[in-house]
Design goal:
7-stranded antiparallel beta sheet, 585 residues, 13-stranded mixed beta sheet, alpha+beta
Length: 585
């Protein structure tokens, strides 16, 4: 630990007023003590930076008078430093070389924190090429595929970025937002002039907090919401543009304000959430989960009408809430692997009736009354598989477009991983699958796998069920039920399935009126909504995407799925009908 007295002597030497005897003693300390050399190096860099800062400020102010005392003091410091450099050059040269070799990397220019379940990568350049993925230096790029990230940027600037987004740190006070939704807060004058560069403009902070939405689908506009203070919208060439003040939200076409939009602080996250919505992939299982209470919220401006007027949204007080029934269909017959041949227990290698790939000359499947700490959830036996084994049963059900099929079963695990799939028995294509894993030994009851057939699934084949154990001790299965679910499953999820309002003599929507809901599916306060189906809204006029979020809140398990208007493949608009097919966790 460097003593305060030694630090004071170093500072006096840098200021040029340390007596020669004490200067010689200090040089001896630098020769003998690596920690003292490191402190000298730190203080000299700080001192130099301060001199440059004050010299620059004096130049900017263009003061016509420079006090002679200041000139003499600076001259005296240069003389002392010149004399010291002659005697300490060798010492400091070696010390600096040693310091540079062993010094830690420079502190990160930005720190990245992500909400649980977020998916992101950071790419670095130059000396930081293999840098910490939790930091950004100048030139680093953050690609946020899913979730939310918070950035502590240089100069007291903070950002909260929502996926999908790509953001790069391009300078000490500048980031480039290629696309994404981001909130920025400049907490002090240190960040004055902080700039967000988008593909079409440069948004310059003048002391504020603001939100930016830049889409990646070629949309030429950028949305800017100013919550505090002011910002200036400059051109990509740096030419100063219009100033936007707090309380305004505008749609920008380059540097031109194309129109005013509804300010929406609620559409920007300002803190990291405790969890984020589910990760969406193409081909995800979809439909409303069974036996759950839901509420749906829509941001103002997420949906626009014919004239561009914004739908005012749905809040918690508006009450689009409903409950789904339990998904336990059994209208497609299947043979439960818990049924042993003739009601007797079968063991390693004995075939399980109705399930193929279970051949008598192989080992790894059977039905048992107990294994380890697992006992049947229903009846006398349960089916079980050891790792590397699969059971498959072909049903008598042809794949029909527009129908949602629901497989419900109990899965028992012993430190294992099980995979359940729905297959096209003709082609062998996997239509839907889900993986189960858990530490210890336990049953996961009433697990569901949903599949909604599209037109290209109509191969003429029949549905097949596949059960597999991928790793661990073994996987068990019981109470298998299979059937169709969803709104009018036989007719499919056609937007026409949403009932139109009854014909009346009332006039249609007034010109330039915002869109109004005329029908909901499921209906508000429905206590028996069918699981597996989508969400649908019919409006009184054709609609299009605006800017904002649609939130599906599962009140049963306190989870949320958040959809970005126009940016999620599980939402579609067909004339006056909005359809949402939520992912099934």
């Amino acid at each position: 630990m460097i003593s305060r007295d030694l630090q004071r002597k170093m500072l006096r030497m840098l200021d040029g007023d340390l007596p020669a005897e004490e200067a010689a003693a200090l040089e001896a300390s630098l020769v003998a003590d690596p920690e003292a050399r490191a402190e000298w190096w730190r203080l000299s860099r700080l001192h130099s930076a301060l001199e440059i800062r004050y010299a620059a400020e004096a130049t900017i102010r263009r003061s016509p008078v420079v006090p002679v005392e200041r000139v003499l003091a600076l001259r005296q410091r240069r003389i002392v430093r010149t004399a010291l450099s002659a005697t300490a050059a060798a010492i400091l040269l070696g010390a600096v070389a040693l310091w540079l070799v062993n010094a830690p990397p420079p502190p990160p220019a930005a720190v990245v924190r992500a909400a649980p379940e977020s998916v992101f990568t950071t790419a670095h350049t130059g000396d930081r090429k293999n840098g910490d993925p939790g930091t950004l230096g100048e030139g680093s790029v953050l690609t946020l595929e899913h979730g939310v990230a918070e950035l502590d940027l240089p100069h007291d600037v903070r950002a909260v970025v929502q996926a999908p987004a790509v953001l790069a740190l391009t300078g000490p006070r500048e980031v480039r937002l290629d696309h994404g939704r981001a909130f920025f807060e400049v907490a002090s004058e240190a960040g004055h002039g902080f700039t967000v560069a988008t593909p079409r403009q440069r948004i310059v902070d003048l002391g504020t907090s603001f939100g930016v939405v830049a889409l990646r689908d070629g949309t030429p506009s950028t949305d800017l919401h100013v919550f505090d203070g002011t910002v200036r919208v400059d051109g990509p060439d740096g030419l100063a543009g219009e100033i936007i003040r707090a309380g305004r939200a505008v749609r920008l076409e380059g540097t031109t304000v194309a129109g005013e939009i509804e300010p929406s602080a609620a559409s920007f996250l300002r803190e990291l959430p405790e969890r984020v919505d589910l990760l969406l992939h193409d081909g995800f299982s979809n439909g409303l989960a069974a036996d759950s209470q839901f509420a749906v919220l829509i941001d103002p401006g997420a949906i626009l009408g014919e004239s561009g007027r914004a739908f005012p949204g749905i809040t918690e007080n508006d009450g689009w809430s409903f409950r789904t029934t339990s998904a336990a269909p059994a209208d497609i017959p299947v043979r439960n692997p818990a049924f042993g041949e003739d009601g007797r227990e079968t063991s390693h290698g004995d075939a399980i009736a109705g399930w193929h790939d279970a051949r008598p000359d192989e080992w790894g499947w059977g039905v048992v009354a107990r294994r380890n700490n697992l006992t049947p959830t229903e009846g006398r036996f349960f089916g079980r598989l050891f790792p590397g084994n699969t059971l498959r049963q072909t049903t008598g059900e042809k794949i029909r477009p527009g129908v949602t099929y629901v497989l419900t079963l109990d899965v028992g695990l012993s430190n294992s991983t099980a995979v359940v799939r729905l297959l096209d028995s003709g082609s062998g294509d996997v239509l839907a699958e889900t993986t189960f894993t858990t530490p210890g030994e336990k049953w996961l009851r009433d697990q569901s796998l949903l599949f909604t057939a599209a037109a290209d699934h109509a191969s003429g084949g029949r549905l097949a069920i596949s059960l597999a154990c991928e790793s661990g001790a073994f996987a068990a299965f019981d109470r298998i039920r299979f059937g169709t679910a969803g709104h009018d499953a036989g007719a499919g999820f056609d937007p026409a399935a949403v009932p139109a309002p009854p014909a009346t003599d009332e006039p249609g929507p007034a010109p330039h009126a915002p869109p109004r809901i005329t029908a909901m599916l499921p209906a508000a306060h429905d206590d028996a909504a069918v699981p597996g189906g989508p969400l649908m809204l019919r409006f009184d006029q054709p609609i299009e995407w605006g800017r904002g979020r649609i939130t599906l809140r599962n009140i049963t398990d306190w989870s949320e799925t958040v959809f970005i208007a126009g940016a999620d493949s599980c939402m579609s608009i067909n004339g006056p009908v909005l359809t949402i097919r939520p992912p099934l966790e």
